[in-house]
């Protein structure tokens, strides 16, 4: 092949995560001759993937059975699937000391068919999504899929007349801080493909560009949450006490104290990850109101709660990271206005890019994989022109039950967003009968109120980013853009005291010489919270050179 | 039409050390648990080769060559995705476990095969390599390849230009830079820095993944010395570097800090003198009080074993090793006090019967002169050589070469030398690695000292590998410890144990020479202590006959610049500023006054450093950047102003003897990683401190 042929492929998958790789695996199983290229901005597959996580065992079988009937016996599978959930703690924390296990409430709910019953995790596998992704990548490569990491896509080339995407444009490499080409400058190549799968994860850069270019619509704005997580190595005794099959999901303190305290949506998690390591995380809806709030502060409080502390006290943090979750659900899925397809023409949106997280289950991994199966099948079975792909894909998503599942949880998150947890949660138990609320974008919710449980000491963000092993080439232009600096100085700082400095989990933003600026872009963890929580919608996250960002191994 | 053979190496990624990378038992870094990457300086070598091809409009090829296990193919694909036209993987079990000698040799043979088979026998080629690898850190292999191929070697290159049909290389020399051009091709170029490593393109990456590699075995290249058996050094043990526990002491006033600094600098001057004056801590077997005393072994276990054995031999009333019959051996093995293996006992007894040292001859130092002065590192080596020679009951020699070197002899004798061997010739006016190594080879090969020490300066680190290779001697680079010990299990007495950090300072290794007539090592400057000069010392000067011709001059020196303005991050005091300096003016003003006053008051050279953040804010040029992503440093005093102390920064300064921090944030993490700190603004504290130091 000559050099220019390497700039073409039949199927281009943007994002080597669970969704994109599932699409590649499925397609390759159905059509071994398919030319598939998966591109990812991370250094290695899995480096940019972070989740809890628990995964429904059935969906894994659905994906991997066509590859190998005995997939579960693969030694790599045993390494990735840490164990099955045996003890499912659903806790409610009241203050720093008290905790109640409300599992029985959920179990009852399940019995009576009330939607909250979905929250149970029995028979799920406990996994690290970075490891899961790396495993999937290995499987895909063995099947003959090309996975090219270290290259970032900055745009999609779309012909709106013909409703077809021609290809993608990669980010330029070798620009200096001021955007001038250095001697080693390489212009971003244009990669063309017949079918394009956008599986970038939450708030995907190219996905959002595509939504704009192809005029896809969301019935309601997407809602986000930020998850921050530490992997903590604890003593033998602590780990044994926690037990290797237990997962903990906790509501209440430090995010929500009914009537008296703060009222935020979210909660804490504790998952055992093997080798004496417990993942401790805090997930907070981005619609928080408190201008001095940082989810890492909530994590500190959670770790100091008497229920959590006994398992992790004295432990050492071995890895850390942060990532956003798209929580809007059914009403926030971007769709073609005419066909209702999740995508358009030859472009399909998968997984978190499409917002396929079910907030009743607090899970999206199963839907991401199912969307991959649907996309792979759609490409394999599509005999018409590629323009029909997105519709075909959406039809298959429906057939796999994804759309229905998303529908069943459609009103929950919005109700809480609108009414707060105290009234929103009980109301949401009405399930389908819950009234339909249309919330605003998260960033509009910020107020000058303060977080009541602010810890005395600032969270150590330097160690956090070091434990995420994040790196970027220092001399490139800052990939974080402030649209209007006057807005920061004249509106935001006086009113909210520059919340980006507080909430960015990587400490990217600082006041330098009296001006708020993204002073440490190379610390960025690619969570993109800044562009969704800046109260004046004044920050844009653009993509840095490939290979940059965190290097999660076991998150 | 020049061609370029680029040497690339796969190394463990020492910048991303995971928590499980350390062996819980021994505390050492387990190499297999680290991710593998291409050696960073080799990426610079690729970029330099590409630049050379580009500026000379060459239609020649770039060929990447690596030696390693099959997985080293990854660095060849890395090269293909950037600029390489062809790649060669030299892989064979027989090549494993090699030291630099047995690495350079097969690589040179592979280069010969590449020239013959892939370049049509053309002599117009350059071997371009990173100056050193982060794992071994020896900087020996490229120079040794130049020795084997008998071609010029330009070390420490930082830039290249193409003028009137030839390449001119800018390179680092001690306290300056030089522009040189090799007189002939082929030539070896080692790259110390090159700012713009190449990016991969998407298309070339896909092509690289499909390209078939050329793969050769040891038999294919037919090299003379490979693997463990071809090596000239042996690793005795690997151990964790000593942990430093910082004091983290809070000081309330700049006056208190000034007092402590003055005290610790004057105190350490005393201890420096004490160290150098220390007498021998090794006693030759013939002089030991007890015949079976072997308290000079490598590890604690070995010492314990010998002690147990000596006790048993006493009990059995054995007076001489010759009295030990099979019967006695059985008794020893049966004894509950000893738990030796039969083979170990055999080794130990064999070593007890050895009374003669493994090596004979003097302890030599290869002197370096610069700008009409003896390099300070030469005096440090003399202090060490004196110490070693006293242990071995032998004399200290210095060998020095130049156009006119008689004037240096007196100072060298005063610093501890017994004999000064001089080589003088007009052709030695300027330093040239080929001519100087030829001269030193002749003199060392004539006298065969048992130990030859080089300073690990830019000059020493190219000379030492060339000389040792030609003389078929083992060489350990950049040592921080040199001691005489017995190596009993291998039945050698009074050998030089050479200790050095490896894997980016994450492990220490003790190495000794084998199958060599002389033990050679280069020593890191600033670690060994010089003796106080004694003008009354007696010594003799010996003029050595040498043979060189102008054909032995390998480089044209086009320009030499000795700059005072260059950054010397090896200075004894580094004063660094971080983002807390607020602006460039503050950074410049406060750092200049503080470093000047510290330097004056503590009588130690000071240099300015900066955190990554300060460089990003444009307070100072990137060459000043200290830390994991900048330069890793180990000064006597590290002074951090307005630096928060991110882990990445602290790793880069971990080798500092004393760390002082000034920061206005009471929670600054640096306060947990320093010796002394003041909580306050730099604008307030620095002027007060300067006053207190005066």
Notes on the protein architecture:
The complex is a heterodimer of chains A (555) and B (694). With 555 residues, chain A is of the alpha+beta class. Chain A folds into three domains: 3-78 and 129-218 and 333-408, FAD/NAD(P)-binding domain (3-Layer(bba) Sandwich), CATH 3.50.50.60; 83-125 and 222-326, D-Amino Acid Oxidase, Chain A, domain 2; 468-541, Alpha-Beta Plaits (2-Layer Sandwich), CATH 3.30.70. Chain A contains 18 helices and 26 strands. Chain B contains 19 helices and 31 strands. Residues 270-277 of chain B have low confidence and may be disordered. Chain B has four domains: 3-231, Rossmann fold (3-Layer(aba) Sandwich); 249-270 and 567-693, TPP-binding domain (Rossmann fold, 3-Layer(aba) Sandwich), CATH 3.40.50; 294-353, no CATH class; 363-544, Rossmann fold, CATH 3.40.50.620. The longest helix of chain B is centred in the middle third of the chain and has 24 residues, at 254-277. The interface between A and B is large, with 41 and 35 residues.
């Amino acid at each position: 092949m000559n050099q220019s042929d390497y700039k073409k492929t039949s199927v281009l998958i943007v994002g080597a995560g669970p969704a994109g790789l599932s699409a590649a695996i499925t397609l390759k199983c159905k059509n071994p001759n398919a030319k598939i290229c998966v591109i990812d901005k991370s250094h290695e597959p899995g480096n940019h993937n972070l989740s809890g996580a628990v995964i429904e065992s059935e969906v894994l079988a659905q994906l991997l059975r066509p590859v190998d009937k005995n997939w579960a016996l693969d030694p790599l599978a045993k390494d990735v699937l840490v164990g099955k959930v045996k003890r499912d703690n659903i806790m409610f924390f009241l203050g720093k000391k008290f905790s109640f296990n409300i599992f029985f409430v959920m179990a009852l709910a399940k019995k009576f068919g009330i939607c909250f019953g979905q929250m149970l995790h029995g028979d799920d596998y406990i996994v690290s999504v970075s490891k899961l992704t790396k495993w999937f990548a290995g499987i895909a490569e063995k099947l003959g899929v090309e996975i090219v990491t270290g290259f970032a896509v900055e745009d999609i080339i779309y012909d709106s007349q013909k409703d077809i995407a021609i290809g993608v444009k990669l980010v330029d490499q070798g620009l200096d801080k001021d955007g001038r080409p250095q001697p080693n400058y390489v212009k971003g190549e244009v990669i063309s493909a017949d079918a394009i799968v956008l599986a970038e994860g939450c708030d995907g850069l190219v996905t959002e560009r595509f939504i704009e270019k192809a005029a896809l619509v969301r019935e309601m704005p997407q809602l986000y949450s930020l998850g921050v997580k530490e992997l903590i190595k604890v003593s033998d005794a602590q780990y044994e006490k926690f037990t290797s099959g237990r997962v903990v999901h906790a509501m209440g303190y430090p995010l929500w104290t009914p009537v008296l305290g703060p009222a935020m949506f979210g909660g804490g998690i504790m998952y055992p990850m093997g080798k004496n390591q417990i993942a401790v995380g805090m997930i907070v809806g981005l619609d928080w109101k408190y201008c001095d709030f940082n989810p890492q502060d909530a994590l500190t409080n959670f770790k100091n709660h008497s229920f959590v502390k006994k398992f992790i006290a004295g432990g050492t943090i071995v890895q850390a990271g942060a990532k956003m979750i798209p929580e809007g659900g059914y009403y926030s899925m971007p769709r073609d206005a005419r066909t209702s397809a999740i995508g358009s023409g030859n472009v399909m949106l998968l997984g978190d890019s499409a917002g396929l997280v079910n907030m009743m289950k607090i899970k999206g991994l199963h839907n991401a994989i199912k969307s991959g199966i649907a996309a792979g099948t759609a490409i394999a079975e599509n005999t018409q022109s590629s323009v029909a792909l997105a519709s075909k894909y959406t039809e298959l998503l429906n057939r796999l039950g994804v759309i229905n599942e998303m529908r069943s949880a459609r009103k929950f998150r919005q109700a809480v967003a609108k009414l707060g947890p105290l009234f929103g949660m009980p109301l949401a138990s009405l399930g389908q009968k819950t009234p339909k609320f249309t919330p605003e974008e998260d960033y509009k919710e910020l107020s000058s109120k303060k977080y009541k449980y602010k810890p005395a000491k600032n969270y150590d963000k330097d160690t956090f980013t070091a434990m995420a092993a994040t790196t970027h080439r220092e001399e490139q232009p800052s990939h974080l853009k402030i649209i209007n600096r006057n807005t920061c100085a004249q509106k935001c700082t006086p009113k909210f005291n520059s919340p980006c400095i507080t909430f960015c989990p990587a400490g990217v933003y600082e006041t330098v010489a009296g001006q708020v600026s993204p002073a440490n872009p190379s610390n960025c963890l690619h969570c993109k919270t800044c562009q969704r929580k800046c109260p004046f919608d004044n920050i844009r996250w653009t993509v840095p050179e490939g290979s940059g960002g965190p290097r999660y191994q076991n998150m | 039409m020049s061609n370029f053979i680029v040497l690339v190496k796969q190394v463990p990624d020492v910048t991303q050390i995971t928590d499980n990378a350390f062996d819980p038992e021994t505390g050492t870094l387990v190499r297999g648990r680290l991710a593998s990457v291409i050696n960073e300086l080799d990426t610079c070598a690729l970029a330099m080769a590409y630049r050379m091809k580009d500026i000379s409009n060459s239609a020649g090829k770039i060929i990447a060559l690596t030696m390693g296990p099959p997985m080293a193919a990854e660095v060849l694909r890395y090269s293909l995705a950037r600029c390489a036209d062809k790649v060669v993987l030299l892989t064979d079990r027989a090549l494993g476990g090699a030291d630099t000698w047995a690495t350079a040799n097969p690589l040179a043979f592979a280069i010969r095969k590449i020239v013959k088979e892939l370049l049509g026998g053309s002599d117009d080629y350059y071997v371009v390599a990173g100056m050193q690898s982060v794992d071994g850190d020896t900087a020996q292999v490229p120079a040794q390849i130049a020795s084997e191929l008998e071609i010029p070697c330009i070390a420490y290159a930082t830039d290249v230009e193409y003028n009137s049909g030839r390449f001119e290389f800018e390179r680092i020399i001690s306290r300056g830079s030089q522009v040189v051009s090799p007189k002939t091709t082929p030539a070896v170029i080692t790259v110390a820095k090159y700012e713009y490593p190449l990016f991969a393109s998407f298309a070339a990456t896909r092509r690289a993944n499909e390209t078939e590699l050329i793969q050769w075995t040891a038999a294919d290249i037919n090299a003379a010395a490979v693997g463990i058996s071809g090596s000239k050094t042996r690793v005795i043990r690997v151990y964790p570097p000593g942990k430093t526990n910082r004091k983290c002491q809070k000081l309330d006033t700049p006056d208190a800090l000034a007092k402590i600094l003055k005290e610790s600098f004057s105190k350490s001057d005393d201890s420096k003198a004490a160290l150098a004056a220390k007498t021998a801590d090794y006693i030759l077997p013939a002089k030991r009080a007890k015949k079976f005393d072997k308290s000079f072994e490598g590890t604690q276990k070995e010492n314990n074993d010998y002690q147990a054995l000596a006790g048993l031999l006493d009990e059995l009333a054995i007076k001489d090793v010759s009295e030990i019959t099979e019967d006695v051996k059985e008794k020893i093995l049966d004894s509950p006090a000893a738990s030796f293996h039969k083979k170990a006992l055999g080794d130990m007894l064999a070593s007890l019967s050895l009374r003669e040292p493994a090596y004979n001859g003097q302890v030599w130092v290869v002197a370096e002169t610069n700008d009409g002065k003896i390099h300070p590192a030469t005096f440090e080596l003399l202090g060490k050589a004196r110490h070693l020679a006293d242990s071995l009951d032998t004399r200290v020699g210095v060998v020095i070469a130049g156009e006119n070197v008689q004037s240096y002899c007196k100072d060298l004798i005063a610093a501890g030398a017994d004999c000064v061997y001089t080589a003088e010739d007009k052709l030695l006016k300027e330093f040239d690695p080929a001519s100087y190594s030829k001269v030193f080879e002749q003199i060392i090969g004539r006298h065969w000292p048992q130990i030859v020490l080089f300073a690990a300066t830019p000059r020493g680190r190219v000379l030492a590998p060339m000389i040792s290779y030609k003389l078929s001697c083992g060489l350990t680079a950049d040592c921080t410890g040199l001691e005489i010990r017995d190596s009993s299990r291998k039945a050698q007495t009074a050998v030089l144990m050479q200790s050095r950090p490896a894997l980016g300072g994450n492990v220490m290794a003790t190495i000794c020479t084998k199958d060599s007539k002389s033990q050679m090592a280069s020593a890191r400057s600033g670690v060994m202590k010089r003796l106080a000069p004694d003008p009354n010392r007696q010594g003799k000067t010996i003029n050595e006959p040498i043979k060189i011709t102008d054909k032995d001059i390998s480089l044209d020196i086009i320009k030499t610049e000795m700059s005072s303005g260059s950054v010397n991050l090896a200075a004894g005091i580094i004063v660094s500023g971080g983002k807390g300096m607020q602006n460039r003016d503050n950074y410049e003003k406060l750092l200049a006054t503080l470093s000047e006053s510290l330097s004056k008051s503590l009588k130690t050279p000071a240099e300015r450093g900066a955190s990554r953040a300060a460089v990003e804010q444009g307070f100072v040029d990137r060459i000043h950047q200290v830390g994991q992503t900048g330069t890793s440093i180990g000064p006597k005093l590290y002074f951090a102003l307005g630096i928060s102390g991110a882990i990445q920064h602290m790793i880069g300064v971990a080798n500092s003897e004393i760390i002082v921090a000034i920061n206005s944030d009471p929670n600054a993490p640096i306060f947990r990683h320093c010796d002394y700190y003041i909580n306050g603004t730099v604008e307030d504290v620095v002027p007060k401190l300067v006053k207190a130091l005066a």
